[in-house]
Amino acid sequence: MVKSTRILALFLAGLALLAINVHADGATLEEKVKEYRLKNGLRLLIVERPDSPTFAAHIAIGVGAVHETSRNRGVAHLLEHMLFKGTKTVGTTDYRRERRLLKEIEKVGEALDDLKFRSPGAGPETEELRRRLTVLQEQHKEFVVKDEAARIYAENGGVGFNAYTSRDLTAYIVSLPSNKLELWAFLESDRMKNAVFREFYTEREVVMEERRRSYDSDPQGLLVENLLAAAYTVHPYRNPIIGWESDIPFLTLSKTRQFHDKYYAPVNTVITLAGDVDADRAYRMVERYFGDIPSGTPVPPVVDVEPRQRGEKRIGIRFEAEPRIMIAFHKPTLPSREDYAFDLIDMILGDGPTSRLYRSLVVEKKLATSVATSTLPASRYPNLFVVSAAPRHPHTVDEVEQAVYEELSRLAAEPVGAAELDKVRNRLRVDRLRRLKSNKSLAGMLSYFQTVAGDWRYATRYDREIAGIGAEDVRRAAAAYLHRDNRTVAVVTRGVP
Q1: Residue 304 and residue 176: Cα distance in Å, rounded?
Q2: Which residues of 279-315 are buried (b: 16+ CB within 10 A; e: fewer)?
Q3: What band does 496 get if pLDDT is binned at 50, 70 and 90?
Q4: Of 221, 232, 374, 446, which sits 20 to 30 A from 380 (CA to CA)?
Q5: What's the pLDDT tens digit per position in 106-145?
Q6: CA atoms within 13 A on the CB side of 487
Q7: What is the CATH number of domain 313-494?
């Protein structure tokens, strides 16, 4: 057994060494990333990888749900939807004529929103405005070319055209043949300069339905949402990305445009290109298309600081679903030493069938059907280490919870053995480096760390930092944070509320 473990460790280490030299000339990633900054503040990272005639483009805008206030919660997510609606040249049959109709739609829509805010309920004036808005939206269909940017990309060999909104940032992604760099630069700079918020009121209804489907009617979404709201009392990480149910109907077009015009700008943008691109030519292309865009306003840091938790919090949710539990512990975030320790704790406790929690709760004691660990909800600010589990019938949530605490106590009391620690270090390293083989993953990783950690080099220093985290660091982090007074417990039990 010792011999086979040693062979496995050597194999994983060798695979990691192969993965880290992801370039034909053997240069390391840190040596291959070329970094530029435009006069308007836009950051550009380029990795030349001529292995295949394609490239991945990842645009990260450093504004997300954590930067919203009580007046515009959910706006970053709604903007993700709106920025697929086209521009003054893309997505329209005749923008000159369309513009007049859009102004009328906005006028009626804003009047309706104002009336609903001041006087909830459906009076004659409200019904008349709704009727007028419906007529105008029907007329507007004449000018709308749906999903035109997606069509253009697809016709030019583009794949993976998508976007996501997190609490920390918003990102837009696509991969293209290398000879389509200028097409990408035109379409994405046009989106930043000339976005048109078509179909705003119908898209807002789409988001409301998305919320009902993904949160209100889904036990897992409901559990996570309630867990975060209970764990955080002050910090905006407590708010759902999509917004609360009462927020979405009052996200007005003017609020949405104001948020966009202020923050969706070069000073908050990181673009990463990875693949078959010439760095100098790509820089000149980006400067040509993005360089004349006004800098915009830097996203301010969140000043709300979550106070230290002084006792266990518990929340119960009744739902017609199988019981499940989530246990969250406050912890520091990157680049703190404790955050590196928690990356190892995550692997030790919850990474797959050989992890401690899985072996104990699922294999040996047969208390649970599933168990996993994760970090929620984001990483720019202090976050949560979370254990999730579902009991196996006839066992209860209480039995599963106590078994979890036994494993956490053991981790806090006994240093991890050298072999186990080496194993999870190697798995962590190999899993991370394997993802770098993809241009898309590499571009996303560099943009992410530049935005969230403030320096893409966090990724290249990671292995050195992890290697310096020892068994005592892991034990000390577990003891400091995985205890009763620092935890929030959320449980779904079967029943109709």
Answers
A1: 41
A2: beebbebbbebbeebeebeebeeeeeebeebeeebee
A3: low
A4: 221
A5: 999 999 999 888 777 667 889 999 999 999 999 999 999 9
A6: 20
A7: 3.30.830.10
Q: Which two tokens stand for residue 205?
A: 């209804």
The CATH code that applies to domain 54-92+144-290 is: 3.30.830.10
Contact 241, 65 (CB under 8 A): yes
Query: Quick one: residue 200, left, alpha or beta (phi over 0 = left, psi -120 to 50 = alpha)?
Result: alpha
User: Taking all residues of the chain, what is their mean pLDDT, rounded to a whole number?
Assistant: 93
| Residues of each domain in the chain carrying CATH 3.30.830.10 | 54-92+144-290, 313-494
Give Cα 214 to chain centroid, integer Å. Answer: 16
For 247-280, the pLDDT digits (tens) are 999 999 999 999 999 999 999 999 999 999 999 9
Beta strand pairing status for 43-48 and 269-275? parallel
pTM over 0.85: yes
* Amino acid 122: pLDDT: 67
Helix, strand, coil percentages (3-state) for the chain, rounded to 5, are 55, 15, 30
- Residue 307 phi/psi, 5-degree rounding, is -70, 155
Cα–Cα dist 99/14, whole Å: 60
